[in-house]
Amino acid sequence: MSTIELSSFVTAAQFDNGLDKLHTTQEAVTQRTSHTSVGGKVLSWAKLHITGDGQKSADQTRFQEALKTEFGKDVGEAAYKAFAPGDGKAHSLTNAQVLSSVELALTTQENKAEELNVTTQAAILSSVAKTHGAEVAANVTKLLEGSSEFTKAGENPEQIKAIVSQIAEDVAKNLAAETDANIATHIEKLGDREHLKAAASTADFQINWDNVSSEQITKLQENVQGKLENQSRPSNSNQSIRSSLKDEQVQQAVGNQLRAIAALQSASAGDTLLESIFSELGLPAEKISAGAFGEIATVLNGVFNTVSGPEGTNDITDQIEGILQKSIINSAVQDVLKSTLREAAQTDEFSSQIAPFVPEGTPKEIRAAQKWLPDLAAKEIVRSIKDGNDFQEQGGIVNAAKAELGKQIETAQTANEIIKGFVEHLTADEINAELLTEFIAKHSNNADGLGGDDNKFAAERHFTKIFKEHPEIQQQLNNAFRSEKLKEKSQVVSEAIELISTNVEEQLVNRLQQAGKHPTEAYATASVISSTLKGPFVQLFAPLLDSLDSPDENTISEGEFLEQKQAVTDVFFFPSDPSENATGIANGLVKGFHDLFARHDLQLSF
Fold first, then answer.
1. What is d(CA 596, CA 590) in angstroms, rounded to the nearest whole number?
2. Rg of the chain over all Cα atoms, to the nearest angstrom
3. What angle do CA 135, 139, 140 make, to 5 degrees?
């Protein structure tokens, strides 16, 4: 059946001859004619009687096909069905049916075109926002207001998208340039003391500007610039996105840096807060060194930068007192305890305890031990202060610190035996997980989240003494290195720690995600746990390899020797996927560090 153009149906339907019926042939549409003679009526009746329902069905079908050809299958069929007779019988095609169906199809087509335009516009602007940020997208939207081309974006989407993308690129460049200029202006103003004084006065910060150095102002400028740079990059996933600075956020970032200066003055020599803390602890504030105040400044600067957030806009008012007290205790109190204990370590009482620990006949080593052992003791006492220990039973902090110094000396002496057993064990045929765990736990005793890092200066002294007194252990280490047994054991240990770290991170991340929180905290906690486990190995690894005897030139070249040492280092610091051999070590570490994992409610078994 040939298709008749829809226009033919519309033309015929619009022709008014008083009748409402249409007929079709294969090529045309005609109005049913009026008959006045009896014979004509009889003939017309006879024709309908013969052709009957078949003609009506053909008329309906041809009209339906014309609608689909003109408007497409979906729109054409929907428009036809909306006005087609629905009783299942054959009906004549009428003018009203044709005109109503075509009108509906036209309206539907227009609506679809408009919907496509709107959808296309939204998609283009969404792409701009994803690439350049919400502010650029908003500016581009304003520029496109009244654009006839953009209004009809659905008619030629790719061309319009290319045009809009170029506009967005230009807008983004201009915005970035304006923002950079704005940041530069703010930083330049912060170099002016009068501007800073006005800002501090507005925020009601009490600052003695005569005691503010040019270095502090430079540091303030550096910190604020970093904060404003972060403010201007609202997307962590796409650092190329820039946005304008908001005045209230800039003011908050500047204000927090001024708080740091005010806080530092509160922790300076002769200040009420510092004197009060030292008085409560029963320590002489006058013994604080100039270096300790420099350390307080460094700590405060770092802490304030952290708690104020990447953009510097966090409200840290309620945290200031706690930050100050923690910084004073961590820096000034520890400084006084270090100097006090170093003096104690040089007395006959402690010198006699220290001497057997270091290699014989090396006064230099004794003096070194008299420095770093008191430092470890002071750090341990500060940790106890933070935990709320008042040391009344020990007769005060100084007496407790001297007792702790004795413990550190005992620990150092014990460490020789632990490390000796560890070297023997690491170079043996099989690794005993319990012995390995005992070593790590004891060697991490003085660690603060970095697994024995406090002891790094003592490592070489331990190995020097061990190998001097036990040359057979030195030979065992050399043999294990040459046979690659040391390399194999180092790899298994590292794989075990990696196995634990991976499982810890997965548990912590899942827990936070289920609570609807960002997993950043989980990554940080997992990293600390991993460092605590791996730290003792890390700080002993270099002196362990340095203790290897230089090779016989007739056996192996210096270059090959260094390559083999590097290979051992690589398998330890860059572990492969954990092997089955690593599970036993992993379970031993989990058992030995039970309290560490229980603290974070972690369930681990391999």
1. 9
2. 42
3. 115
- Is the CA virtual torsion 520, 521, 527, 530 positive or negative? negative
Chain segment 117-134, per-residue pLDDT in tens: 888 888 999 999 899 999
User: What distance in Å separates the CA atoms of residue 73 and residue 94, rounded to the nearest whole number?
Assistant: 22
Strand partners for 24: 29
pTM: 0.57
Residues whose CB is less than 8 angstroms from the CB of residue 4 and which lie 6 or more positions away in sequence, other chains included: 24, 26, 27, 28, 29, 62, 65, 66
Beta-carbon neighbour count of residue 541 at 10 Å? 17
Q: For residue 22, which phi and psi values (nearest 5 degrees)?
A: -120, 145
Residue 436 to residue 493: CA distance in whole angstroms: 9
Closest CA to 9 of 131, 141, 97, 127: 97
CA–CA gap between residue 581 and residue 496 (Å, rounded): 8
CA distance to 39, 66, 75, 98, 418, per residue, from 80 (Å): 36, 10, 9, 9, 92
- Sign (positive or negative) of CA dihedral 191, 193, 194, 197: positive
Neighbours of 243 (CB within 10 A): 18
Query: What are 8-43's pLDDT values in tens digits?
Result: 888 888 887 666 788 888 888 877 654 444 444 444
- Mean pLDDT of all residues in 256-268: 87
* Ramachandran bin of 531, using left for φ above 0, alpha for ψ from -120 to 50, beta for the remaining angles: alpha
CA angle 145, 148, 150 (to 5 degrees): 70
DSSP class of 4: P
Q: Which two tokens stand for residue 377?
A: 């003791």
φ and ψ at residue 6, rounded to 5 degrees? -60, -35
What is the token pair recorded at 387? 């935990």
* 304 neighbors 319 (Cβ within 8 angstroms): no
Which two structure tokens, joined as six digits, stand for 282?
């029963």
- Residues 314 and 259: beta-carbon distance below 8 Å: no
Query: Rounded to the nearest 5°, which phi and psi values hold at 21?
Result: -115, 145
Alpha helices in 90-133, H assignment, sequence order: 95-132
Amino acid at 515: A
Using the predicted structure, report yes or no on whether residue 403 has a pLDDT greater than 80.
yes
Q: Which residue has the tokens 């860059």?
A: 574
Rounded Cα distance between 177 and 168, Å, is 14
pLDDT over 70 (residue 509): yes
